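Deliverable D5.2: sample structural annotation.
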Amino acid sequence: MAAAAQMQGRVRGRAEAVMRQMETALLDGTWPAGTRLPAERVLAEQYGVARNTIREAIQRLAARGLLQSRRGAGVYVTDQLRAGIASPWGQLVADHPALRDDILEFRRVLEGATAYFAALRADTADLERIRTLMAELERSREADDKQTEAEADARLHDAIALASHNTMFLHLHTSVIGMLREHITINGKGLREQDDDASGLLLLQHRTLCDAICARRPEEARTAMQTHIDFVRSRVEQEDT
């Protein structure tokens, strides 16, 4: 009886340890919302435990709403972490356009910091992702495809946040900035549709930003990001007057 209890306690302890590691993967962007988790066998090999330990850790995270098991399709990451901060803001932003200035002020601080730390901490994969998205932004601009250009713009900002390798910056970016993007009409696409000059200036700003990050110049990266946000803010103010 005592031996069985000890064994059960060790299994629970291993499941707890694995769950904490999986939580880290959820927080640091390794597994963003919508990601399908690797198979139990793969996770068991990765964490060096039995498959039943993985299964228990997944069940605990699913009970908290962080993972969702889909019959015949696997286990997926939910948007619970994002919704935890974002959900009350969604309706507020939709109902109060005057919040746009506060939003852009917040973006200036947050994204300036993500650009700074991305220049310091980005690894080879991060830099490749940033370069790829910048090239996609430039191709969309050449093709005058404003929708694709705006989407590449958004993904580029997400990639910079990921490259900061700061869990809180990434969480705030995905949960707040990502949510706001759904409700703010004055985003990249909106500015690009106003006039062609804006589109060209936005491309130049992003190129300057990416060059600073890839050259590992953090102060220049932060300044470039803040200059970009200031430009967006000035255009929003022009529209409001």
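Annotation notes: Residues 183-187 have pLDDT under 50 and may be disordered. The chain has eleven helices and two strands.
The annotation will be released with the project's public dataset once the embargo ends.
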